[in-house]
Write a structure and sequence with these properties.
The chain has 497 residues and is of the alpha+beta class. Helix content is 34%, strand content 15%. The protein folds into three domains: 11-78, no CATH class; 107-160 and 347-495, DD-peptidase/beta-lactamase superfamily (Beta-lactamase, 3-Layer(aba) Sandwich), CATH 3.40.710; 168-317, D-Ala-D-Ala carboxypeptidase C, peptidase S13 (D-tyrosyl-trna(Tyr) Deacylase, Chain: A), CATH 3.50.80. It is built from 13 helices and 14 strands. The strands form four sheets. The chain has a five-stranded antiparallel β-sheet with strand order 5-4-13-12-11, with helices on both faces. β1 (85-86) and β2 (89-93) form a beta hairpin. α4 (149-160) runs antiparallel to α8.
Length: 497
């Protein structure tokens, strides 16, 4: 609805009156060639004036044309974009389904969106400033997200934990020469050599504190406690085992060192079947190196600690830093840790089963509606996750605006052709959008995805999510880049028609 009210007599009414008068005059003084020329001139002039009036002025509220447009725009299909205000009159909507081309919405990505490389394609694009839906193809259908899920995980962690939150690892003193290494979900805790998490706390720092507290008192037993959450669901059954053996994902336990990597300095490195046991062995070595008596021969036992007497403590870097390490490189380990820690700190139990409700509650705080999402993990590795492109695009409006701390996520998103997992993307004809797409990539065996925001060619900002489901990675990536570049080129003129 427009704030501007129509004048008592519109341009259309005055032109109709003029035409009627001309016709009456022609009937009284029949000069065929003059009357014919005048009638033609007036009819053409009337049509042109009405067209201009329709594009730039509001219709009278009771007109048949206004009623028809209201009816047509009240039931948009899933693939028809919502009305877009024209720049000449704020609030004036010219729907695409009205006969004749729209003054703004004339650009299509239908060819790029129909590429075979997109498989079973789902896509959604909206104008971040106006909230208008510019394109939707199966956009309301919840589906597997791949690592685009990490944007939801980040938003949840920022809502629940806050960017300044740090994750502790502690050591408690028990009786009989026993001490306990207690994990609370910091997968960045490092053995102290090469690490993919620069600035992480180390086992050596803990060991030095233990030595300072115990002096010459010997240690006979090292307890490893990962009971901050139950590790019965440390591995999701829908994850391929190759994710662990190749080195993309560890068992999700509350205590581990260097993300349980065999090579702590390599992002992709084989993980073990017992990250807690590996952490205990590495801590024993650190204690021995720090000169703690008896540590080299201490027995390692996995159980909950019986003591609250904390003798050593270190903390992770702030959550905001962890997000900056996770998002550009799509680190599954940090994603799972942030998901579980968010669950615990929100008052839930840290289980995978708790994540859907934890995410829903956190995401609502940004003014978006997460109803219907299914969250199986924090990384997006499970094909059983279900989130619609519609939801991702709406969340990205808040991300692009930096609402409620989400600027941390906006700043961490890979940039097309420049950084993170998009550094080598958007080549050839798609290079037109290099530096203009800020988005999280996703890749699992059954889907390749992309979701974020675009600073379009016309200066508008668009948010989007595109899912290529069921096609090969080799085919999906260039197809995703192409449909995203086409969206960039269309900008706010994009139509779903």
């Amino acid at each position: 609805m427009s704030d501007q009210q129509p004048s008592p007599r519109s341009v259309t009414d005055r032109l109709r009156d003029a035409l009627a008068a001309a016709r009456a005059s022609a009937a009284r003084r029949p000069v065929p060639w003059i009357a014919g020329g005048l009638a033609t001139l007036l009819v053409l002039g009337s049509g042109g004036a009405v067209a201009v009036a329709a594009a730039t002025m509001p219709e009278p509220a009771g007109s048949a044309s206004a009623a028809a447009r209201a009816t047509a725009s009240s039931t948009p299909s899933a693939t028809t974009a919502a009305p877009t205000p024209t720049p000449t009159q704020t609030g004036r909507a010219v729907p695409d389904d009205v006969a004749g081309p729209s003054a703004l919405r004339t650009c299509t990505i239908s060819s790029a969106a129909s590429a075979s490389g997109l498989g079973a394609f789902e896509g959604y694009v909206m104008n971040a400033k106006t909230g208008e839906v510019l394109f939707s193809r199966n956009g309301d259908k919840a589906a597997q997200t791949g690592s685009v899920m990490k944007t939801l995980t980040t938003a949840t962690a920022l809502a629940v934990l806050g960017g300044d939150h740090r994750i502790p690892t502690t050591v408690t003193k028990e009786s009989g020469g026993a001490i306990a290494l207690v994990g609370h979900g910091d997968a960045t805790l490092s053995a102290g050599g090469a690490t993919v998490y620069p600035g992480a706390p180390t086992l050596g720092q803990l060991a030095q504190q233990v030595k300072a507290k115990l002096g010459n008192t010997p240690v006979t037993t090292i307890v490893t406690d990962d009971t901050y959450w139950n590790d019965a669901d440390a591995w999701d059954p829908t994850w391929p085992v190759s994710e662990r053996t190749i080195g993309y994902q560890p068992n999700v336990t509350a205590l581990m060192v260097d993300g349980d990597r065999a090579n702590p300095g390599a992002a992709t490195s084989p993980r073990s079947t017992d990250p807690v046991g590996r952490a205990g062995s590495l801590f024993r070595t650190a204690l021995a190196n720090a000169g703690v008596a008896g540590a080299a021969n201490a027995q390692i036992v996995k159980r909950a600690t019986t003591s609250t007497d904390t003798i050593a403590s270190v903390s992770s870097q702030p959550v905001s830093t962890l997000i900056g390490q996770m998002i550009p490189n799509s680190d599954n380990t940090l994603a799972e840790m942030l998901a579980r820690v968010s669950s615990k700190e929100s008052g839930s139990n840290g289980s995978a089963a708790s994540l859907t409700s934890v995410y829903e509650a956190a995401l609502r705080s940004y003014g978006v509606d997460p109803s219907g999402i299914v969250i199986k993990d924090g990384s997006g590795e499970s094909a059983s996750n279900a989130v619609s492109p519609n939801f991702v695009a709406h969340l990205m409006v808040q991300v692009a605006a930096g609402a409620k701390g989400l600027g941390t996520l906006a700043n961490a998103l890979p940039v097309s052709g420049q950084s993170g997992t998009l550094a080598s993307r958007f080549t050839g004809a798609n290079a037109v959008a290099r530096g203009k797409v800020h988005a999280k990539t996703g890749w699992i065996d059954s889907a390749n995805t992309l979701g974020g925001y675009i600073d379009a060619a016309d200066g508008s900002r668009l948010t989007f999510a595109f899912y290529a489901i069921g096609s090969s990675r080799a085919a999906a990536l260039p197809a995703l880049d192409a449909v995203t570049a086409a969206t960039y080129s269309c900008g706010s003129r994009l139509t779903g028609s």
